[in-house]
Design a protein that fits this description.
single chain; 14 helices; about 65% helix; flat
Amino acid sequence: MTATVAPPTGPAAERPGARVGRLLRAVPPIWLVLAVVIVLIAWRNPTFVEPGPFLAFLRRCAPLAVLAAGQVFVIIAGEFDLSVGALVTAVVVVAARLSDGDPAATWWLIPLLLAAGAGVGLVNGLVTTRLRVPSFIATLGMLLVLNGAVFLWSGGAPRGSLADNFRQFGRFGIDLPGLGQLPYAVLILVAVGVGSWLLLSHSRFGHQVYAAGGNPRAAALSGVDVRRVRTVAFVISGLAAVVAGILLGGFPGSPPRPAWVTSSRRSPPSCSAARCRAGVAAASAPPSPARSPCNRCSPCSTSWAWPSRCATRCRA
């Protein structure tokens, strides 16, 4: 008799292509879209994926990402928070007015701002859950209240200045050999992201947030205090808005240029006063078809992002 061997079944018999497809289907589509966007940007601008420019890009994205992390809790809980933009503005204006450039005021000002952000979130949560006002209306009203309070307090013209140690969170970072500067904003973003993931996916409160947003009635019957969960979600959103405002406070002004900018080939060449006068004369003369496009550029521009097409004329 001839024994018949059955073909292998299970994961061992799965073809490599089918395994890759199964793994891709398990990844949320938004991550695939993000990967495609990054690849396209890197293809159009290869310097984007270099350590210096990419970390600078993440530093710029950090405040918005932190703000979005707070919004995730509110949206998953089934509500909206429209007041975070006004809260970010209020944080920067209040910090500049109270500190007025005094470095000693930073360390008591940051806890005060965090407490104020938590208070704003608490008011939003109580108005929404206790007074049964739709969160869209309640947070829109809070937005108008915050904007009006800032204008009333500042007189329409913000005063004061932020201390350097307040700005450092959004401006400076840790120098790493071979990578340049790792911004503090990126470290804060990673900490907020990991904390949000742990809180939502590996805690009882996170499960309650999903339950309150998915089916509030069923969550209440199973013992979840839906009103408390949604109020805490608003408080987290307020705290995230304050952190985003602190990071944004480091953006204004002229921080020292990183090494990857100062050593870039786009740095403007040095030029003498005679070249400056020649550039001004060339720029003020009427255009003619025979002229190069570089005649429309000033050879003495002080901007590091000066168009590269004019660099040849400047060096000549």
